[in-house]
Write a structure and sequence with these properties.
The chain is mainly beta. The chain is built from 1 helix and 12 strands; from the N terminus they run E-E-E-E-E-E-H-E-E-E-E-E-E. The relative contact order is 0.21. The model is unreliable at about 1-5 (pLDDT under 50).
């Protein structure tokens, strides 16, 4: 009887391709959805046997919301407090394949020095060889958090008394990881 070990990717260290990756967020604001992204991100995926470890960062100073003044406000103590907490951190030591390319990740997210457990779900692509001799996989991940759990409490009441900004924030990560391919001699 053969036992098949299901892993997220073949063994080894997979480095983030930041050009083809993104970390975005969405939150209900006023009469719609407010969206932003972090331009400077980093991540590493290490696969050893059945175990996969994922660690990632986003530089707060790289937050972009299409308005320079608003980006500056997001970096202030009202939101991310970039001066005291220059990076957001995510770590996970429990990445599970749920079948059909679906993954579940139990991890920890740190924002403004506050670390909380988060559950992340998504999909993983099968490894492919890229045109440059590397192996490549993609992870598409999403999670919903309550921003106030991390000390991100700013809000502005509407005339009705309701808050203008929702507490629930959806985080969306589209990540491509690269590992040098096997050298073959011809």
């Amino acid at each position: 009887m053969t036992t098949t070990i299901l892993t997220v990717a073949p063994p080894g260290t997979w480095n983030l391709d930041p050009v083809h990756s993104s970390v975005d967020f969405e939150v209900s604001y006023l009469a719609g959805t407010f969206k932003g992204e972090f331009h400077e991100i980093g991540a590493e995926l290490i696969v050893e046997g059945e175990r996969a470890l994922l660690a990632g960062t986003a530089k707060v100073a790289s937050v972009d919301v299409k308005d320079e003044n608003l980006s500056a406000h997001l970096q202030s103590p009202d939101f991310f407090d970039a001066e005291r907490y220059p990076e957001l951190h995510f770590t996970a030591e429990d990445i599970r394949l749920d079948g059909d390319g679906k993954v579940s990740v139990d991890g920890e997210l740190t924002i403004k020095g506050v670390t909380k457990p988060v559950v992340v779900t998504g999909t993983v692509t099968a490894p492919i060889a890229d045109p440059y001799g590397n192996d490549r996989i993609g992870l598409s991940l999403t999670s919903k958090i309550d921003r106030t759990d991390f000390g991100v409490d700013w809000n502005n009441p509407l005339p009705s008394g309701e808050p203008a900004l929702a507490n629930d924030v959806t985080i969306l990560a589209e990540l491509q990881f690269v590992k040098p391919g096997d050298e073959t001699s011809e």
